[in-house]
């Protein structure tokens, strides 16, 4: 290594870092980093110089701002993994050996030639270095290509020799787009057939791809056109690289005349749930913002995993679509898995099924035409059959078209009929004010329809309904299991006449009506309690990962060695899993770097304990042990106390310092590697709070033995009736 000149020196956890902010260079005083650090660095806009033994010679960051941000993360990784220099090399301490959990998604592909890997990495580094001068939004169309290529190299996502050409193609396309951006902008109106675009996800700040199929003359059209959202099927190997390559070359099965078709990536293979569902909504918003789309004529379709996604998104976001056609797929968990009651998981997990199981949201599907499709011989007809039953229970009949003689694919004539019905539905959509609205939910994240929002439930995860019917200008509303209701008078579809709710005439109300049900009667409130379960802040843990979040790693040591090891392994596993499965790079900071602005903008995913993580320490102090506490000796939650040397809390709770955001302690999404075998199991598996016993190591299905767990009540107190 060349001798450093005029460097500043930083010391942390046994490392000496020689930095030169003016040039953005970091030169470690030891010769290697563990693999997680190198993998992380390869996703950054850096210039890496690696020795033949994969040790790090030096890192050059493309700008001082990038240098500062990434350098802190390098330090965080070094500290978090307790890397120690020994005999000129760095080694992890032997007590941090982590249980190896096999990754199912995506599967590992063929070996990549060293020469190809080096050449691609060099080319990608050069692109990222030039792109560092542009804003994230401007460079998203480049970043989706470089991210796809880097992940393919790192995780070995080439499955045939010819896949190497896909990497070359994406790198060349990224170079072309970058040159256009450097000259000003990319003129997308000149590309009139197929496009692959990128947008920046609000969830983790990563670039996510989408494909577009555009109709003739769209760029000069003076009239907005309908948008069809097509959700792809499951493809274990269909990572960013392969998704983008296919979208560059193929229109797909659904190409309606005169309409734009968007193909969301949806984080590849999470069933269009979690961050995947947020991505679909952001993809729709991106297309509506940048292309001539009639926002009132958005149609949703999908097949197989995409059919399951269509059932889910239509039922949970009923105000986003005017017509829906799910093909095959699944609509629930237990029946799709053929589970018998004697084989059911714990009660809390059964309760959590209700978040995504579509039958609990059936009435939302009455708001627009739904045309289900099944192949006559397809086992996945089960989804439409289940929904036929659910419609019948509510006194409705589901339109279910069956492809004669077909297995798991469309019959061409039946697909034509479906597309005709979708075209008819969107062409007449929302031409007049509806005479009826249905809103049904079992979870507060999914509790809005136009001007109606359910803010609270009498019993959480139970059947909750609002039915609204119009006669002339006046509306009659009936509710079930609703404790708080909000009516938005400013909404463009808000009634201008009288409103009667459960028999009570609401003839006088403010712009935003907050109603609370007390003793069976509705009363208007000026404000609701700040600490309450409400939309966007109702748990469970997984709910935090649909919104913008920030991972906060500890800068100190945990009070107990077993806790220290568990935290190191689980946090590193979470970051690796998010990158591999969720196809993004989570925002990461050390606890000492977190600002008030971070707390305002993000849910905080806090790893460590009160001794190792100062943000956890601040949170506990602000919370004042009202519901839970964590000292050097004990973990307390409600009436339950556990030995802090052998137990770790994993929970979600409103941030005491910024109550409109979550804090999550020591957990990522609670579905794990074993659940990736089927998208129907990629659901929340743990409730609001959990005490994990370290007497059982983490596995593909659990972070350890669950010693005690449960849900918080509506006021975020431990609910004894919902404790196991």
Explained architecture:
It is a single chain. 27% of the residues lie in helices and 27% in strands. Strands 27-26-28-33-32-34-35-36 form an eight-stranded mixed beta sheet. α6 links the parallel β10 (225-231) and β11 (260-264). The N and C termini lie far apart (57 Å). Residues 1-72 and 75-95 have low confidence and may be disordered.
Summarize the structure.
This protein is α+β, with helices and mostly antiparallel strands.
Low-confidence stretches: 1-72, 75-95
Overall mean confidence score, pLDDT = 88
Q: What class do helices, strands and sheet pairing give?
A: alpha+beta
Main β-sheet, spatial strand arrangement:
27-26-28-33-32-34-35-36
Measured by DSSP, the beta-strand proportion falls in 25-35%
Shape assignment: globular
How many individual β-strands? 36
- What's the main sheet like? 8 strands, mixed
Number of helices: 14
What is the radius of gyration?
Answer: 26 Å
> Terminal Cα separation, in Å?
57 Å
Helix content: 25-40%
